[in-house]
Amino acid sequence: MTASELEYATPDTQRTPVVKLYLGIGLLVFAGLMLVGALMRAAQGATTISIGPEVFYQLMTLHGAGMVGTAGLAALAVNWYFLSKYVRLNQKIFLGTLVLSLVAVVMIVGSILIGKFAAGWTFLYPLPATSLGLWSKGAALTFVGGLLLLGVAFLLVYLDMGIAIVRRYGSIARALGLPMLFGREPIDPTHPPAVVASAMVLIVNVAGIAAGAIVLIMTILHLIYPPLAPDALLMKNLIYFFGHVFINATIYSAVIAVYEILPLYARRPWTVSRPFLAAWLAVTLMVLAVYPHHLLMDFAMPSWMAIMGQILSYTSGIPVLVVTAFSGLMLVYRSGIRWDAASSLLVLSLFGWAVGIVPAVIDGMINVNLVMHNTLWVPGHFHFYLLLGLLPMVLGFASYLSANGQQGRTGRVGAMVYAVGATLLCLSFLVSGALSVPRRFAVHEESWQWLGDVGALSGGIVLVGTLMIAVPILLKLPRARLASISESG
Ligand code: HEM
Ligand SMILES: [Cu+2]
Question: Which residues in the chain land under pLDDT 50?
């Protein structure tokens, strides 16, 4: 038995191989879908690239569903890898989730590229059933069925993670640190932040995916038997509850990479404290209650829900972000940290997450939403915290894991190229939004088109940066000694 096998709850031979698969596939898909994104932005520009509205909406559906799903799986890999340090997880189940997800991907991609399904990744009811002849009922069923299968795949691994956490910590509440927070147990500085975050993700994402499964099944029933028409507002609530929670859970999973890897670079521990635990409890509750900020323009919604959505939008993202960004900066400050691809990307992720929340909060105000709703302001803010927050967490994790502590220059330069491109791309969306350019339009007015061209060019820069980071990782990943995480630094 090696030293690391003693240290980890799940033996190394079982911790690493499937994580490599998740990351390898994830990086390739991210790059491919970025190309699709750049193509869409070019189609909105003045350039000669013209793909036609039908293909545009197919690509938009592919890009949206693909990016959200891949982000979810990559963030799951971060979460699983670090949680398995502390609790004993089942590698076969983790692999099973990947296999089921890949089947789901085949269904989703097939429904779009062969079946021409183009109702957007949000499959807003009753659009999947009202294609005006553009796609068949079978295509809609395959897409919706693919999403459902993806949800089942997540629930499967979450079940294993939940059982393992309860075995080790007694309950999910205890893993979240509630007895420490409320003074019933002394603060245990060795309680891992990764376990706190995992507990939060399990609570919110099981609820989110359950809501998603319900609305997907209702959509399937409606497709098979149209007279069975559920309430449209209920469907919209369920869809946005699911979508909001799922994409937020990706960030709260991936941030574990910051908690686990930055301390190794700074050679200082990241310990839990009462403010840290309070922030994670607060965000657990708020992430679930804030989703009505997606329905601010639905006048049929009860006004108390809109008001709750607005108020919680101010506060929802803040607590964990503040404790994480503040502790992260304190950790790094004067630590003599080595700036390589992994550490640069992880610090970049804190910046991107923080800055990305600002336009999101602005849009969460009812009066602003009256103007900004369904403009490119919205893709502006979510691309910000996904491209500059979430992806750098995943890419930073992958660089660290693949490098055995020895990273080349390409990745670090790539991180800079990536940051510049992603900032420009988000600005191209935000400026468009501020000029009231609508989102989800295949063709743009002439006066808006230069912003599409800027976006397409920036998307190309992001892709170059991503490849500079990802290619060295992909080359080293198969032979990487992932156990080196505790040894190098
Ligand atoms: C090079 C990088 C990227 C480019 C150029 C890009 C470009 C685009 C464009 C042009 C749209 C359509 C905007 C509209 O007119 O409404 C879009 C939508 C979207 N993108 Fe990206 N994107 C990139 C990266 C990402 C990443 C990393 C994610 C998530 C992890 C993501 C998630 C989404 C989602 C969820 C939508 C919404 C689709 C919908 O409205 O149904 N994108 N992107
Ligand atoms: Cu939201």
Answer: 1-5, 483-489
- 462 Cβ below 6 A of ligand 1: yes
Output the CA 41–ligand 1 centroid distance in Å: 9
Predicted pLDDT of residue 482: 52
pLDDT at position 365 is 86
Query: What is the rounded CA–CA span in Å between residue 171 and residue 199?
Result: 9
Domain CATH number, residue 99: 1.20.210.10
Smallest CA separation from ligand 1 atom 9, residue: 37
Q: Is 225 exposed, middle or buried (0-12, 13-18, 19+ CB in 10 A)?
A: exposed
**Residue-level pLDDT at 485:** 40
pLDDT value of position 42: 96
Residue 176 sits in which domain range? 3-486
Instruction: Give residue 405's pLDDT.
Output: 64
Q: Which two tokens stand for residue 302?
A: 């009860």
Residue 390 Cα: closest atom of ligand 1: 30
Give phi and psi for 438, each to the nearest 5: -70, 150
**Do 395 and 345 touch, CB atoms closer than 8 A?**
yes
pLDDT tens column, 416-452 = 999 999 999 999 999 999 999 999 999 999 999 999 9
Those residues whose beta carbon sits under 5 angstroms from the ion ligand 2 are 244
Whether residue 459 has its Cβ less than 6 Å from ligand 1 = yes
CA 320 to ligand 2 center in whole angstroms: 16
235 Cβ closer than 6 Å to some ligand 1 atom = no
The number of folded domains in the chain is 1
